[in-house]
Amino acid sequence: MTTPLVRQVLSNETQALMARLRGIKPFSLHVPMVAAAALQTSAQQLIEQHMHRVLSSVAQMLGTYEDWLNSEAGRRTKDATAQRHLTLVRLRFHAALTQFDLFSDVLTQRSEHEFGVWLAGLDALAVDALKIEGKYFELPGVACYLDRGIGAAIRRVRTRLPGGRENPVAIIRVPRERMIGSGIASSLVHEVGHQGAALLNLVESLRKELQRKIHSDGSPWRLWQQWISEIIADFWSVAQIGVGSTLGLMGVVSLPRAFVFRISEEDPHPSPWIRVMLSASIGQALYPDSQWRRLREVWMRLYPRTGIDPEKEQLFQGLEATIQEFVELLTQHRPRTLEGISLLEIFPVSDRQPDRLRNLYGQWSGRFNAWRTSSPALAFAVIGQARADDRLSVSDESNLINRLLNHWAFNRNDLNNQCGCRPKANAYSTAVISTAL
Q1: What is the Cα–Cα distance from 356 to 382, expressed in whole angstroms?
Q2: What percent of the chain has pLDDT over 70?
Q3: Residue (of 171, 181, 139) closest to 394 by Cα position
Q4: What is residue 39's DSSP assignment?
Q5: 55-70: pLDDT as tens digits
Q6: Is the dihedral of CA 340, 343, 345, 346 positive or negative?
Q7: What pLDDT band is residue 299 in, cutting at 50, 70 and 90?
Q8: HEC profile for 240-296?
Q9: Are the C-beta atoms of residues 404 and 396 closer than 8 Å to each other?
Q10: Residue 138: which residues within 8 A CB-CB, separation 6 or more?
Q11: Which H helix or E strand runs over 146?
Q12: What is the Rg, in whole angstroms, of the alpha carbon atoms belonging to the chain?
């Protein structure tokens, strides 16, 4: 039986957890930001509704435990057993706080001067880059935030959060060092590609197709299969923003030689050296132009493949020998989710041809109204092409992107009216959560 002293200690701890839970307010009540920096309304509501369900569930568990502890059954339970039950509830409590902190990191940066509005502009770019030809999935809500490091990352929608619940919106971590230049689009749209691939189940369908190509352990197709999740995200990025994607990738993976030529059996990321070569080959297949050959030559001059291990050199030779066949497999892939349509056909390839992007840059130069009426992904494709052609200086690029991000943040409702991220009818409210807790 539980002793009175133990019951009192456990009851006090339960009430303390409940009090802390009541202190967690909706983000809309305590996260200050200018209106342009705020998340899209639907995404904000999805997050608020999600946290309402999580916190209400924990509150219910605490209340149930308190009632049980003071019941006849609780009194007959051993002290250690009663403690074990509370420990399990506390784990759920901490999982809820972890989720709250995750979304808090996303939202509190929105109050930073300039950066908050830029993040809202990146939200708009991410949603636009996720759009494809046809209605094959409902667009999720997207929220971007900044963090240290050189690489971006994504927590995809409907993946499991701490505690087991599904993530209500896609959360994209953007490297702060990429702000503010066209390279930001390369990192961001790569992460968007991970989300798009998941919604279309591209990784699994491509892995099955690549499995048929593997003839031995040393086959380069085994490595293509191992790296396919990152490769399809790179493909998405090149398909949406053209040469700017490859230039941005080169900036990210320009590392010491030991890392550039590294091939790991566990790493889902391709060796940086072959990854850039593959990105340029994808670009050549989608947007034929001599610029891709020049980019490959630059990369090989920066990182000549000399003095590396003979066994690794053999792997690189095998990968290079199969690049063209692999790229053709990617472009012609027809997963069930696309109902017979090839991967190539869902992207705006005709709109991203280099000569068209060059013409658009010439037409739009000095006319900001033309830039702001374009889609965000197309605007970044034009900027990336202009940078590749050395027609746009770094300072002018930064100023232009600054203005565009501010404009997209202010006009997201016009840009994202087609976003399918809709909250449920019973919108989250302070009264609801206060009543639940």
Answers
A1: 9
A2: 92
A3: 181
A4: P
A5: 999 999 999 999 998 8
A6: positive
A7: very high
A8: HHCHHHHHHHHHHCCCCHHHHCCCCCCCCCCCHHHHHHHHHHHHHHHCCCCHHHHHH
A9: no
A10: 420, 421
A11: strand 142-147
A12: 25
Q: What are the tens digits of pLDDT across the range 334-376?
A: 999 999 999 999 999 999 999 999 999 999 998 999 999 999 9
Measured CA to CA, the distance from residue 144 to residue 188 in angstroms comes to 9
Return all residues near 141 (Cβ < 8 A) that are at least 6 apart.
Answer: 39, 40, 42, 43, 46, 47, 157, 168, 169, 170, 419, 421
| Angstrom distances, CA of residue 188 to CA of 119, 197, 292 | 11, 14, 21
Q: What is the rounded CA–CA span in Å between residue 279 and residue 223?
A: 16
Residue 180: asked if its preceding bond is cis (omega within 30°), the reply is yes
Question: Between 183-200 and 376-388, two packed helices, what is the crossing angle to 10 degrees?
Answer: 130
Identify the helix (H) or strand (E) that includes residue 47. helix 41-69
**SS3 at position 416:** coil
Q: Which residue has the tokens 């020049």?
A: 294
Task: Label each residue of 372-391 as H, E or C.
Answer: HCCCHHHHHHHHHHHHHCCC
Residue 174 β-bridge partners: 146
Task: Calculate ∠ Cα 97-162-103, nearest 5°.
Answer: 55
The neighbouring-strand residues paired with 175 are: 147
Give the pLDDT score at 435. 32
Kindly list the distances between the CA atom of residue 339 and the CA atoms of 134, 310, 327, 342, in Å, as whole numbers in the listed order. 11, 44, 21, 9
* pLDDT of amino acid 437: 33
The C-alpha atoms of residue 200 and residue 196 are separated, in whole angstroms, by: 6
With a cut of 80, say whether residue 427 has pLDDT above it.
no
- Work out whether strand 142-147 and strand 153-155 pair parallel, antiparallel, or are unpaired: unpaired
Closest CA to 82 of 178, 31, 129, 13: 13
